[in-house]
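S.,

Sequence below, as promised.
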Amino acid sequence: MSVRSLGFLFGVLLLAAFRAAAADDEEAYFGEWSNDHGDVLRINAETIQLNDNKSMRYDDITEDSDGSFYVLQITSSDESNSFDGKYIRIIFGSDADRFTLITYRTHADALNQRNESSRSEWVAADEED
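The prediction came back faster than expected:
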């Protein structure tokens, strides 16, 4: 195999690895979601937004997850928080197009799954159409 061919092969493998890493950066909860009340929840890599309320910045503080749950911390100021707490636990069941969103007021409550502030069920927006 020539040096040129090896260089091309290396480039293709590097691109494939880069794309795989980028795909891994997309979390299961990214996207547009809806619930039975007609609410719309939009989540991307930096913000979360409920209906037409102001987008809120968050950090994914998930630890030791098998991909079935995530813990988010709202980092925007309290006055712009659309949720009933600063900590959100997202739990997926067997259907990747549905999740349960539970809010907590404290980090300890979110980690220990106690003292829920609210609970709601969400489905991928495309599924309801």
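Residues 9-23 have pLDDT under 50 and may be disordered.

Coffee later?
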